[in-house]
Amino acid sequence: MATTKSSISVPLSYEALELTHVKLSHHPHGVPNATPVVVITLNRPEKHNAFTPQMANSLECTFRMIHFDNRVKVVVLTGAGRMFCAGSDLDIGFGDGKGRAVDFRDIGGRVALAMHRCHKPTIVALQGAAVGVGMTMTLPAAIRICHEQSKYGFVFTQRGLTIESCASYFLPRLVGFSRAMHLIATGGVFPPTPKYFGDLFTEALPDAVQVLPRALEMAQEMAETTSPLASAMSRALMWEGPRSPEAAHLLESRVFHHIMGEQDYREGVNSFLEKRKPQFKTNPQENGPPGYPWWFPVDVQLGLPLSKSNL
User: Which Gene3D superfamilies match (predicted)?
Assistant: First the structure.
């Protein structure tokens, strides 16, 4: 079942929330209530931000809140300390494989779907190395910025595991099937160069301390200059679009026609002609086009009836 606003409590201040293994902050600093840019920090530096079920719960909860919060326009996700994320905490493990497969949901996938479903774009600032779920959970983000001297990898096969966090969907679409196959088949850890990752990383910066400030700079610009409605619908058109150019044309035309009748379009044109920053106010939850979502969302909540298609 899809998350509804009635089931989510949006806080006055994200900094006041007490979440396990995750820290939330406003940007710029010193603002008491939610700002257009909210920073999510993986906060287990003593464990290199190794991923835990509690961290997954905190991230999933945060993305769901931000999805419904009209004050927030862009999310920045980063890590505390010298690594972005060392993958899952192997001291905790993944379970013993007992019970029904239909009742299992990988925790990285829950986070990836929460990020993907959030109408607000995410910029990931990988200020240090990342492996395993530390990489796969970033794939639904709009932008990834990294440190060029750090290394990154999808190490699952070297741990006797398969990929998760919806990576089988996102990774080949982002880097191509050939590179995705190489990354997964080798399970290797590599520098963030196009040879291995294509253009998965928008920017690779020479100094680790440059990564988060650059992500915040980009997030602030996006928050000030892009329409939340146009951004959310454009990303949905790419991720959930038809498979033929003709069908894409028909869908894009229908969505474009709807957007032309919205306030954000008039504001975008007027602000450009008047040489000022736009003041976009249209809410993606309330002003989406008729028939949105145009795809068939799959219910991934527990409690589905047991059938072969659910295994």
Answer: 2-enoyl-CoA Hydratase, Chain A, domain 1, Lyase 2-enoyl-coa Hydratase, Chain A, domain 2
Question: Which structural domain, as residue segments, surrounds residue 168?
Answer: 5-224
3-state DSSP assignment of residue 30:
coil
pLDDT digits (tens, 9 = 90+) for 185-215: 999 999 999 999 999 999 999 999 999 999 9
Rg (CA), the chain: 20
Q: How many residues does the chain have?
A: 311
Counting Cβ atoms within 10 Å, is residue 271 exposed (0-12), middle (13-18) or buried (19+)?
middle
Q: Given CA atoms 77, 80, 85, 90 in this order, what sign does their dihedral have?
A: negative
DSSP E strands, 195-267 = 203-205
pTM (2 d.p.): 0.93
Question: DSSP class of residue 310?
Answer: G
Confirm whether 77 is domain-assigned: yes
Three-state secondary-structure class, residue 246: helix
Nearest-10 crossing angle of helices 245-260, 228-239:
170
Residues 31, 66 contacting (CB under 8 angstroms): no
Q: Are 269 and 214 in contact (CB under 8 A)?
A: no
